[in-house]
Amino acid sequence: MSDVLREICSLAMFRNVREKEPLRSLCDFLLKMGPGFSMEEMIDSYGHFVSVLYEMRADADLSAAIWDTLSEDMNPYLRHRIDSIIRPDEAPKASSLMRLTAERELDLLTRIGGYTSFDFKDAMVYDGYLPDFRTSNIDFKKRYMTMMDQIESKGYGIYAKYHFFRIKEGKLVPVTSPDPISVDDLFCYEKQRGRVIENTRKFSEGKPFEDVLLYGDAGTGKSSTVKSAARMFIDSGVRLVEVPKTELHGLSEIIEMLMQIPLKFIIFIDDVSFDADDDRIGTLKSVIEGAASGARKNIAIYATSNRRHMIKETFSARENEIHTSDTIAEQMSLSERFGIRILFDKPNKDTYLEIVKGLMRLRGVTMDEDKLSVAAEQFAIRGGGRSARMARQFVDSL
């Protein structure tokens, strides 16, 4: 087993993988199998190694655990591949030595990932209890090279594992349990939804696209439309990044970070409304203007708002007629920077009932037609008015 330890220690291209779990604990165990260590120390180290596998994966799969770490590792080979996509005219061509080194080390990791608990227990020459783990014998070179070829559509690291993200304290955080809403779950508003989907399709294909503002009454499905449209194009390399209003001050830095990743990101700002003197208005304006200059080809801005101009209008802003036109112009200047502006108005009685019936068909819920119309309308009245959200809540109640 000393040969295995030497192989792991020789890693250069994927050095970070050796420094992280599970290889870190495996190296410690292999070291304890050498001279100068007691049987108790060796057994304790083995037990710790296997416990790490169970912490990383419920199936305690050594090969899969190594892949989990490898797939999220930023190494020279991956960095060069990313640079060649982002800056094809500037990045130097990968040397044959770099590729050869990466391939040989991936083959080495394949061999290491193929060891079983029985192999280690035989080498330990111990008759007492020792925990088991399993291995799935992943071909690391084949899988890794496939990932490299599909970076622009399937992503890499956390961008392959997750598709929805959120900005928290300036950092990109994966959303582990995103809203599962899909286009098939939405009813009515086909024209509005179609415009969002078509723009997102162009964006995913690298064609000219627009930033999008969805505005109108609350609960009409604006946010669901954005999320479902993004979900449609995940396999084309589209990822959704939700940016809370509290994080808008750092929007330029967020965009700069995302521009270094060879995927397409929809920056989603939900339920936007500003006071007239909010300095974040200027930040958002300048970022949206960046689309016209072509500075962010892989980033689109999608925002939702209950207000057409996204800025709260106060009585004091209107009472001075001298400045009324200036105030209106200032309010309009933000929303008009969005190339596409789509109205989601409150549904009438027939549209509301159509949404209810669509959701009932989707969920296999039935109800007498006459009773349904009355019950759905009464539910909406009690809830504050008709909306797609109210229709969904009504069907939930059934």
**Topology order in helix (H) and strand (E) letters:** HHHHHHHHHHHEEHEHEHEHEHHEHHH
On the 0-100 scale, what is the average pLDDT?
Answer: 90
How many independent structural domains?
3
The main sheet orders its strands as 2-1-4-5-6-3-7
Q: How would a textbook summarize the main sheet?
A: 7 strands, mixed
What is the CATH class of the largest domain? Alpha Beta
Query: What structural class is derived from the secondary structure elements?
Result: alpha/beta
Model regions low in confidence, pLDDT < 50 over at least 5 residues = none
Distance between the termini: 63 Å
SS elements, strand count? 7
Helical percentage: 40-55%
Over the alpha carbons, how many angstroms does the gyration radius reach? 28 Å
CATH superfamily of the largest domain: P-loop containing nucleotide triphosphate hydrolases
Shape: elongated
Label the CATH architecture of the largest domain: 3-Layer(aba) Sandwich
Instruction: State the CATH topology of the largest domain.
Output: Rossmann fold
